Amino acid sequence: MFIEPNFGSKHTSKKNETGWIEIICGSMFSGKTEELIRRLNRAKIANLKVEIFKPATETRFHVENVVSHDRKEIRSTPVQFANDILLLASDCDLVGIDEAQFFDEEIVDVSIKLANTGKRVIIAGLDMDYMARPFEPMNDLMAVAEFVTKTHAICMKCGSIASYTFRFNDSGKQVFLGEKDIYEARCRRCYNLGMKEKKKKR
Ligand code: ZN
Fold it and tell me: What is 16-151's CATH number?
């Protein structure tokens, strides 16, 4: 489990504070959002000012709340552009960003700027797309972060540890919103077997 480093307390004077970036990434159904909510809730209980943002395109369950698959929720603000976060988060101690893979490359600069002004920035998102390619801009965010946590799901085929997201639907589009009807968490072996089968069918 991730334990917060003692980088200077957020409760002491602003002058002594340093910011940093944390990434929570993994496949679908790996508990990324649950982990984000866990970290944010603990900071909230400590009376820190917390804001959560997510891309306006991500409306899977509810427009204004970040909701994880197990229905824990936390209030959040949908934003159109990554840059909007800079203005909206100006007076908070801790900034949460969910589904970061749906933001454009600008999110990298935005995250750096937030951390440089002493904020703790926690970003959750998919590390790979359905073709097992690095999901931009998550790979760049991982490079500039102080901490990277990979969450894992359980392979829905064999029960091993899963880090791939297998998609049944093959529209060719990188982004295709869906849940267990279209996506499955799979281990490396079962993911590769599935991709071979898909090729044969074509
Ligand atoms: Zn498997």
Answer: 3.40.50.300
